[in-house]
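RECORD TYPE: protein structure
NAME: Cell division protein FtsI
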Amino acid sequence: YYYQPHLVTKVKDASGATVKTISPLLQKQTISSSISADIRSYMQASVEQGTSMTSKVQGYSSGGKTGTAEKFPRGNGKYVVSFIGFAPVDD
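PREDICTED:
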């Protein structure tokens, strides 16, 4: 799902009472639920038994994706690496 970006979920007065609650505003569903489940499963497998294994945290279900790009000029053995992860897998 794609939600309208927002920074504030509640506005409170000086005593701490909630004056206003701001709910996320759904814009559109970007992919199907079944495709989303497949992607989460693949990313979890990457953490459990693939290239993201070193990111695994005991007690948490997590998923992730690694990336590698060779820096210019090519052939100099220098790379840029990246990792994106999320937890829990089911949420």
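COMMENT: The chain is about 20% helix and 30% strand.
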